[in-house]
Amino acid sequence: MDSAPDPGAGSFERALKEELDRRVAELGTYGDDTFGGALSGMEMIGALIAFFFAPILAVWLFR
Amino acid sequence: MSAEPSTPAQGGRTPEIEARIREEALFGRLPLLRSEREYSTKSILATGFTYAVAAWCFLIGGYAANVVGAVQGIVTLIAGSVIGVTLSSVASALACNRYGLEQIDFSKTCFGQKGAKLVLIFYVINQIGWTGMILVMFGRGVSNVSGALGGPSSEWIVRLAVFAGIVVSYAIVIRGVHVLNVFNSIVTPGLIIITVLLFYVIFREAGWSGIAIREPLEPAKDVTGAIDPALGYVISFEYGLGAGFSWWPGIGFLTRNTDTQRNSLYPQIATMGFGMGIVCCTGLLAGLLYRSYDPTIWMIKAGGPVLGALSLLLVGIANVSASAIMMYTASLALRHVRVLRALNWRLLAGLAFIPTLAYATIPEMLYEKGSAFLAYNATMFAPISGVLFVDYLLLRNRRLNVSQIFEDAKDGHYAFTKGFNVAALLSMVVGQLLYVWLLDPVSLQARGPVRMLTASGPAVGLSMLLYFVLAKVWIIPAKLGGYGADASPVPIKEPNI
Description:
The structure holds two protein chains of two kinds. Chain A is mainly alpha-helical. Chain A has helices spanning 9-27, 41-61. The relative contact order of chain A is 0.06. Chain B is an all-alpha fold. Chain B is built from 21 helices and no strands. The two termini of chain B are 23 Å apart. Classes of the chains: A mainly alpha, B mainly alpha. At the A-B interface, α1 and α2 of A face α1, α4, α9, α11 and α14 of B.
């Protein structure tokens, strides 16, 4: 994030694109269980009840 | 966010290029790998709380005090913040975590490579608007403290302070926001102490029963001019939702750095939803007790000239620090625009700062419209969140092709129609227009069933339904948008990074 003159700008661009390819390839190997497992449908529904419908119910009760 | 990622060095790169690549991964657009994620449960909770306990909470609570009393304000602020953050984060957090993406890059999968740049406009307005608001809050704090200590107090003092705040924020942004780590380690505990002290002072002075009977400062009125408590309640709920939806631009920045899917979602709801809602209640109760929505006024009344001034000083530092972070992310986001990508960082950041000068020119006028800006966040981001929810969770079954997000070629998956997913953009705009028709965020004029259904609810619901139908009958059959395509990486022909 430096503003100094950047004689290596071209090589940085190349390195950035190579790095993007490398990262995209690795990300393509990730599965559903990579980040502690995907949230199941039941868990998503539970989360929506707790953080969406329950607050709406509270607002309705105090209207 | 101080730890260095563990990216292995690549052959032939200088240490300087390697450092810039690391910077681009941590703070820019390169997707973050699993090994680079820094936030575990404990650290994302700490970081989320640092974001949540911000000076604007006092202001948001004050706006609610204008239209509702204590009980209804507490319910609407906490419920609204939780719902707003939940809707903002369900799709964005899960996707940005799984694929290490930044928010606008994720939006490209739904709105299209060029369509996401329209969303970028709302993103940048959010960042610039909040920056301006809290800098004016800082300026008014300076002016009011000066007045309380017998010095001058006028809009010119506010203007000068806002301008000084802009200059300091810009200086921080061009040096890198890492310098704020030391500030934040002082400011966040300080703000927590202020919040606790304020609760103590408020309850010592009036007790719960004394606060609960306080009437709103400027109750909402219907078209006949009669006080309309139901409308006031809905407006306060929309303020809570607006506070929650205000986090939409920041969700990707945080959650791409978390280590699990659950840590990308629940801590955000706990801190930026529930936690922020509680801190907003300080502003609500103080506003009701001291009969002013403005923290720069009631803080001096609550703490006296010395403690009040010290509190405002801390809030002022917090505001300048938060401004720098928001303008940093706004400047980074501008790199999505091709013509701006090649600009030198100082120039790019300078461009992002130009609109904030309006707040140094007409600070009072813009500050008075702050509640409209708060509601604007719900207006803009509620439909966007709804469309993203349908797209990622229901239509794509949580599968994206990351390589194609960085593909600008015309046959890229997320090119849709000339770079725009017209169905998603149309659904978003219809939702936004419905919101404005139900509740004009500027004039607060209400229409239709807004007292029963709110404005955000129908806006989100209609956007979601419309996009689901349009995608099923048009976008997917037309084989636009890469729905159901293989998620394996495809060689990138025209990288857009």
